[in-house]
């Protein structure tokens, strides 16, 4: 009986998946979907009452540690129904900040929140590290199962990382590591991979001191109604903005300037209804990387990255402009990127989808529209199903629409694709694209249902990938 039930359940899931499959026939369809989505992604509102951290003992001299003052101000504000916790002008050194419900942490213009370099100032919390669940150092700003939270203002969040603090833990010489220097993440990273593969209870995967897994900068986890606006972030230990399993996330007017290892600008992970608009990314890794968990953790939780808008952003520097993956085992669907600008000698790809058969999952309904690119190194559009190690979970990539892509100085290829013969990239459309300066128009293997309409590469129309 159990076997029959399991077979019926599998059949139901397959039928449901097929029923939901979308194939766009014009750009107007995803544009209409975007307008409907914008109606439901809204910033939370807060009680009109301010709580200055100075009133709770904070001293903005750049030397006094203000962790306790931040905690007291946030707790008082939360107890009395919420409002703004205001950081006035000055430089405020602190450890981890925990955001509670109904709190808008407002960083005033002229204010700097300077984060401590002492790992003891970051308590152990339940977190995700490279898409894997574990107990590790708290992200610098963290929230867990909170609602209506915000970080706003024109002030500065300084992660205070450099080649002598946090960055060298990655184990790369260019970031300060060398033989004989204690601190290197590879052994702990390998252990965490093994624990995940064994499906160990994530609450028993405990790291922290002596393991050198760098904390992320801002990580709301399982939160609803998240708003991040206008602040500038610099010098993160690792990923900058990383909402995990969140719903209704609005990120607008944010500047990220951070060139350390794995310094992605924004990594929304397994989150639903996310709008990133009018932001500036100048980063040491991908500008925006959409994720949904690595391997077993991503598949077991089964939450896709869903309903994301990336609009009017500038990617000044970074490895990838809009990236989906590689920790994408939960899948991704309905990702809309429009009216964005990219230009960097370090930009490898404008649109990149990277996954593998150790991940699996379905990546579908990706809309890349009105994109201006100055230069890139590898490919304007890149599909890769062989990123990192292979496994038994063949991924799916389908319904990808690229329109009005303009490139001044391309790199090796306009389109580069490596897929499985049994799982080709399906329903790939390019419309009104002009890509100049590439060495070769394309290098692809398994694509199915391709449509190229007015695609000009190096002045010649590209009509097919044959």
Key structural traits:
Pectate Lyase C-like, disordered N terminus, Pectin_lyas_fold, about 475 residues, mainly beta, 5 helices, 2 domains, 23-stranded mixed β-sheet, six-stranded parallel β-sheet
Helix-strand layout with pairing:
Blueprint: H1 2-20, H2 28-38, E1 50-52, E2 61-65, H3 67-79, E3 83-87, E4 90-94, E5 97-98, E6 103-107, E7 111-115, E8 124-129, E9 132-137, E10 141-144, E11 147-152, E12 156-158, H4 186-197, E13 218-221, E14 224-229, E15 232-234, E16 247-252, E17 255-258, E18 272-277, E19 280-283, E20 288-290, H5 295-301, E21 305-311, E22 314-317, E23 320-324, E24 332-338, E25 341-342, E26 349-354, E27 362-375, E28 379-384, E29 396-409, E30 413-418, E31 425-435, E32 440-443, E33 447-457, E34 460-461
Parallel strand pairs: 1-3, 2-4, 3-6, 4-7, 5-10, 6-11, 7-12, 10-13, 11-14, 12-15, 14-16, 15-17, 16-18, 17-19, 18-21, 19-22, 20-23, 21-24, 22-25, 23-26, 24-27, 25-27, 26-28, 27-29, 28-30, 29-31, 30-32, 31-33
Antiparallel strand pairs: 8-9, 33-34
InterPro entries: GH28_Enzymes, Glyco_hydro_28, PbH1, Pectin_lyas_fold, Pectin_lyase_fold/virulence, RHGA/B-epi-like_pectate_lyase
Protein name: Glycoside hydrolase family 28 protein
Domain Rhamnogalacturonase A/B/Epimerase-like pectate lyase: 52-105
């Amino acid at each position: 009986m159990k076997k029959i039930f399991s077979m019926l359940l599998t059949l139901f899931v397959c039928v449901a998946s097929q029923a939901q499959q979308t194939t766009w026939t014009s750009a107007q369809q995803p544009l209409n979907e975007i307008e409907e989505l914008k109606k439901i992604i809204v910033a939370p509102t807060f009680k009109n009452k301010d709580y200055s951290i100075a009133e709770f003992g904070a001293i903005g001299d750049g030397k006094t540690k203000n962790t306790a003052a931040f905690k007291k101000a946030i707790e008082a504000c939360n107890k009395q129904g919420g409002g703004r916790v205001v950081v006035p002008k000055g430089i405020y050194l602190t450890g981890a900040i925990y955001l509670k419900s109904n709190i808008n942490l407002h960083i005033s213009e002229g204010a700097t929140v300077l984060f401590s370099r002492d790992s003891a100032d970051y308590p152990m919390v339940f977190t995700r590290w490279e898409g894997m669940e574990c107990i590790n150092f708290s992200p610098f700003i963290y929230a867990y199962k909170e609602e209506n939270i915000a970080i706003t203002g024109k002030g500065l969040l300084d992660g205070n990382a450099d080649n002598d603090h946090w960055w060298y833990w990655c184990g790369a010489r260019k970031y300060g590591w060398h033989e004989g220097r204690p601190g290197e993440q590879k052994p702990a990273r390998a252990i965490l991979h093994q624990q995940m593969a064994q499906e160990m209870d994530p609450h028993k995967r405990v790291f922290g001191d002596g393991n050198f897994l760098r904390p992320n900068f801002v990580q709301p986890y399982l939160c609803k109604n998240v708003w991040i606006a206008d602040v500038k972030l610099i010098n993160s230990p690792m990923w900058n903005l990383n909402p995990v399993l969140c719903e209704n996330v609005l990120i607008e007017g944010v500047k990220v300037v951070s060139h350390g290892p794995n310094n992605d600008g924004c990594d929304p992970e397994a989150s639903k209804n996310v709008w990133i608009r009018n932001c500036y990314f100048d980063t040491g890794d991908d500008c925006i990387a959409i994720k949904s968990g690595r391997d077993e953790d991503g598949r077991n939780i089964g939450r896709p990255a869903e309903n994301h808008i990336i609009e009017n952003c500038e990617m000044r520097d970074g490895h990838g402009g809009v990236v989906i993956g590689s920790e994408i085992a939960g899948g991704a669907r309905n990702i809309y990127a429009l009216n964005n600008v990219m230009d960097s000698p370090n930009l490898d790809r404008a649109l990149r989808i990277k996954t593998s058969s150790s991940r699996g999952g379905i990546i579908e309904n990706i809309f890349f529209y009105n994109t201006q690119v100055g230069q890139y190194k590898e490919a304007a559009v890149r599909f890769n199903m062989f990123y990192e190690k292979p496994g038994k979970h063949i991924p799916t990539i389908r319904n990808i629409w690229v329109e009005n892509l303009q490139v001044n100085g391309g790199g090796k290829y306009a389109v580069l694709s490596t897929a499985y013969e049994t799982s080709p990239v399906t329903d790939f459309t390019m419309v009104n694209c002009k890509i100049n300066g590439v060495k070769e128009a394309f290098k692809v293997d398994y694509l199915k249902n391709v449509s190229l309409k007015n695609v000009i590469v190096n002045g010649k129309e590209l009509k097919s990938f044959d």
